Amino acid sequence: MANATGTIDPTQWNPHNVSSLASLPIAYLTELFFQNATRAKSCVAASAILPLSNFSLLDVQPSVAGNHDVLKVNADPASIDVGLKDLVRFANQLFPYPVNGSAVGDVATWWTNATIFDKGNATDFLSTVVNTCSGTYCRSDFITIGNPDIVGIGMLVATSMLLLLAFLFSLLSFGPIINYIRSPRKKDNPKKKNFSFRSSCVGTVDELFSAVFVFTISVLVSTFVFRYKTDARFDALMADGLSMFCSTTVVMLAATYWAHNRQRPQNTISVFVIAALTIALFATHFSVVNMHASPIELACGTGKGWVSATDGDPFDMNHFRFIPVGFAVWCLTLIGAVFHHPYVEQWKPEKVDGRRTFAYVMWKTGESLPSIFGTAGLIIYAAYFFDTWQMMKVTYGDAFTKSESTWGFGQYLALFTWTPPLLSFGHAMLAGPEAFFISRLPKGFNFVFREDGSVKEVCPCPCPCPCPPHEEHAPVGEKTAAKSENIPLTDRSGHDDDSAPRR
């Protein structure tokens, strides 16, 4: 009977007075989807016979080339292997009374006869279900959309942490304040330790860069694998966006590392590898844009057919524009990071008589590109994720939400990636920068602070050179950090900046 909303239970709708399964044509069920009063409940029932494993076999294609509004099932209906429990539930909810209570064997026989001897009407029935019930079907528990390792809550938390850390640490490479950050103490009060936060940040950059590099290289490699292992274009697209997001953070942190740490060849090689993979990823992005949508995406309206500039598919064309814009911003970020590289920095112009020259200002502007355009790139991809996320939730409902709330191995790995740098930062903040650096020196090495804030490692006695009994040569475990205000730019043993003997 009709309820308050005007919908009717399909079992109560029997205009042809069907009284037995033998007199129930499958075309009768097709009519249910053209009746406003029975369509909603009929779609719920029909979803039972189209689980994900079978839906992918329907060979759904546009009925007219270029028109994605009407889809057609091209597969043989007899090839659809429907489970008995699903078939009985389908019959109980959709067959008219009294045949909706038929035995399991009778229902199975009816379905077999309908799909073998009445293939035309059976195909029309399946096509009608796909076209009419996509909204209900796409939001049901019968499908799964979204890989948890890409759209899961753990990955969402990990990328949010990455965004925050990249933004905060990129400020350390912001051109106008680099020299201010490098100064460890105020000249008018050298004993005042008011730079512990900045020193802790600089001391953590090395570990953070290594962690982000490992995370990003795994994401980039996984993205290439996703293109060949997944049939869902949404997963491939999100993986592309995530890779570009992570690559941007690597370049931002590389700029910070080069601005404050000693040059190590492996760090430059790491950035080169990330840059090469990112360029290759963008150069082959068209393969994802032209990737054939999965059957679920095809039916649910988020990936209809083969993509072209004239298809007019809003998901494909509007959302893909984020990737080229983000890549352009990434290129500007990389150019700015090069200004901080020690090899390039040797050509850095200086002030003339304390005044900023045009070349000096332009160089500082270049040094600021990673902070400015890197942050802009992160915002672009954050908008890309949020916009696509909302669209998927609206389209798939619980089917997408259950993937979003699922934890996968990759998500745990992503979260644990940030543990070492966060612990190091906490150690530096609590113990103080001097104790933090002491704890990281090899056995048998002392250190002193230079006036410019850098750390000087000095080997202990005995030395091959004259070794006066200064504090920095005391036995390990009994020495204290020399006070920076009493140490000149050369250490007390008489060695200059670069000639101190090393063990």
Task: Tell me the layout of helices and strands.
Elements: H1 26-32, H2 36-46, H3 52-55, E1 60-64, E2 67-73, H4 84-94, H5 104-117, H6 119-132, H7 134-138, H8 148-151, H9 153-170, H10 178-182, H11 196-229, H12 233-260, H13 265-283, H14 286-289, H15 295-300, H16 314-320, H17 322-338, H18 342-345, H19 358-396, H20 398-404, H21 409-417, H22 419-431, H23 433-438, E3 446-449, E4 455-458
Antiparallel strand pairs: 1-2, 3-4
Helix pairs in contact: 1-6, 2-4, 4-5, 5-6, 9-12, 9-19, 9-21, 11-12, 11-13, 11-22, 12-13, 12-17, 12-19, 17-19
Overall description:
By secondary structure, this protein is mainly alpha-helical. It has 3 domains: 129 residues, no CATH class; 259 residues, no CATH class; 55 residues, no CATH class. The protein contains 23 helices and 4 strands. Strands 1-2 form a two-stranded antiparallel ribbon. Strands 3-4 form a two-stranded antiparallel ribbon. A hairpin with a 2-residue loop joins strand 1 and strand 2. The longest helix has 39 residues. The radius of gyration is 33 Å and the shape is elongated. 37% of the residues are buried. The N terminus and C terminus are likely disordered.
Question: Nearest-angstrom radius of gyration?
Answer: 33 Å
Task: Give the SSE order as H and E letters.
Answer: HHHEEHHHHHHHHHHHHHHHHHHHHEE
Mean pLDDT over the full residue set: 70
Report the uncertain regions: 1-5, 186-194, 303-318, 461-503
**Secondary-structure-derived class:** mainly alpha
